[in-house]
Amino acid sequence: TPDTWAYGPPPSVAFDEAGKPTKAAEGFARKQGVAVAELELRDGRLAALVPGRAPQDVLPEALAGIARRPR
To answer: 24 and 46 in contact (C-beta within 8 Å)?
Structure first.
């Protein structure tokens, strides 16, 4: 799968008046597996680049999901 951007909170929620990260920014960064300093501002929100996954890693999950679908 291709790399994608995960979008988090807007800067007004992510940083306090002094410019320090809030729990919202810290939680979003932790969920994405990056440091707050690695987050970027994109389209008015904090964002983290999520690396894509190799086809051999994605295919088993995709096939399992297809097999479980009701017919």
So the answer is: no
Residue linked to tokens 């389209």? 43
Q: Are 41 and 11 in contact (CB under 8 A)?
A: yes
pLDDT digits (tens, 9 = 90+) for 11-57: 999 999 999 999 999 999 999 999 999 999 999 999 999 888 888 88
Burial of 38 (0-12, 13-18, 19+ CB in 10 A): exposed
AA identity, residue 71: R
Q: What is the DSSP string of 21-65?
A: B-HHHHHHHHHHTS-GGG-EEETTEEEEEEPP--HHHHHHHHHHH
DSSP state of 9: -
Burial class (CB in 10 A: 0-12, 13-18, 19+), 9: middle
